[in-house]
Amino acid sequence: MSKEMGMRLGVVIAAGGVGIRMGTGTSKQLMMLDDRPVLAHSLAVFENSSEVEEIIIVIEPEDIRRCRDEIVDKYGLRKVRAIAPGGENRALSVWNGLRELGLATSHVLIHDGARPLFTAELLEEGIREFEIGDCDGIVFGLPVTDTIVEVGLGNRFVARTPARSRLWAAQTPQIFKRTMLEKAYRVPPKVLAGATDDASLVERAGGWVKMVMGSPENIKITTPVDLAIAEEILRRRVTA
Known about the structure:
Layout: E1 9-14, E2 32-33, E3 36-37, H1 38-47, E4 52-59, H2 64-73, E5 80-85, H3 90-98, E6 107-112, H4 120-130, E7 137-143, E8 150-151, E9 158-160, E10 168-177, H5 178-184, H6 189-194, H7 198-204, E11 209-213, H8 224-239
Parallel strand pairs: 1-4, 1-6, 4-5, 7-11
Antiparallel strand pairs: 2-3, 6-10, 7-10, 8-9
């Protein structure tokens, strides 16, 4: 499908950082989830997808060898082109990954290594939405169910309450035209340091980003509770 449309998709997995809220002092992406590391689960959907040409993993420099030995080699991940060192912040880490992509790659998917439950069905849906051709990128997300307020003075007083009907919680992966994403990254370091995701940079560069319905199961592993929830989701998928 995507190859016929001229899309050659490369994947950058942002797997840097230490999971402070996990309370372990080590990379949460390398923690075990059921029978294998979190990161191995996150990679599997892209390794097995015919839509994906190559994968770049970005991880803390001290974890590169362990990632190669315990994940890439152990599980035979042949699409992993390189394992790049993470930068001082998320955006710089992703930029390190972008520079490792092959020249033929035309579109880039960015995914958090700590989101191990993204599915092949969602990936296919996202690519279909992208190929409609009305945007520069897509982001998966969910409509918020809670009322969100913006606080002002001292982070104690409510400044305004945005209309909930227009608010979505963004997830990863996010997929972009490579040329637009690279343009979005050509900004001062201060801007990169403040970026919480790639879609915000693309929007800042004038790109059109479309929201695609994600999944409540596409959780990010941040705390021990998240790990327990992920294990239960995996168990239910096996028994379903």
